[in-house]
C-alpha cells in the first residue's frame, strides 16, 4: 500500500491555512505539499509556488512530488468575484479543469473540490434547503461552483475519478481574515470586538438568516469525507453541510455577552441581494446518512473559542 502524497492548491486561504496543518498532523510534514501563488514567510512544511492556471506547472508539480491526492481550494469568492465576473469565471473554471485533467492523466487516487451554498438561487426552499434543488445562482462564483459540481460528476462517471465535494456554509475562523465572501461579516465582527475598535459596520441586515460553520467543524468534515469508504459516497456533485444558522443580530448579541459596550450599525450593500438568495438553513441528511456527519459547534461554543483565540492572537501581535 503506497503512502499518500497530498497536494493542496490555494493553501494560503482561509480553509487552506488550517487544512494544511491538519493534514500535516495526519499524514506527516513530508507527505503534504502546500501550494499557492506566494509563500507565507512563517509557513512550516513543504511548499511549492504554483499557479494552477498553468496546466504544465501543475502537472509537473504532481509528477515531481508523486502526488496521490489533491485538495483543490483555489477560487475567487462570491462578493470579490462580482467585481470582475469574467475573470472570476476564467480562474475558477480554468483551475478546476486543469486539476481534473491532471488528475485523469496522472491517475490521482482522490480529489477534493469545495463547493458552496452560493450554488443556490432565490427559487429554492430557503428553510431546510434540500440536497438536490434546481440550482440558479445569482453570482458568478455560485455559477462556477454549480458548473464545477456537474463537471466533477462527469469526471467521476466517465473516467472513474474519486472526487468528493462539500457545499460549505459561511466558514467562521480565527486563523486568518476572510477572503471576499458574503458571510465575511461573521469573521470580521469578532476582530472588531476583540480589538475594541468601536462600532462594527455590518453590510447585511440585522435579520439576515444564513447557515454558518465553525472552521474546526469545516476542516473535520472535509477530512471525514475524504476518509470515508468510496462505497459510502453516494453523491458525486456535492454534499450539503450544516453547522448552525444565525443572523447578524444573534451573532452580535452573543459577542455582546462578553463585550457589553460593543456596538453595531447596519449598512446593507450589494451583498444583501446575494444573501437573500441563499438558504436560511440546510438539510444535510445525506451527509449524516452516508458518512456520519455531525457538527460539534453551535453559536455559543463558536463564539467562546473565537474570542479566546483572537485575544491570544492579538496579545501575541502586540508583544
In short, what is this structure?
With 319 residues, this protein is an alpha/beta fold. The protein has 11 helices and 12 strands. It has 2 domains: 6-171 and 214-240, Rossmann fold; 173-211 and 243-280 and 297-318, Alpha-Beta Complex (UDP-galactose 4-epimerase, domain 1), CATH 3.90.25.
Secondary structure elements and their pairing?
Elements: E1 6-9, H1 14-27, E2 32-36, E3 46-49, H2 55-64, E4 69-72, H3 78-81, H4 85-106, E5 110-116, H5 140-159, E6 163-168, E7 170-172, H6 185-195, E8 199-202, E9 210-214, H7 215-227, E10 239-240, E11 244-246, H8 248-256, E12 263-266, H9 270-276, H10 285-291, H11 299-318
Parallel strand pairs: 1-2, 1-4, 2-3, 4-5, 5-6, 6-10, 7-9, 8-12
Antiparallel strand pairs: 9-11
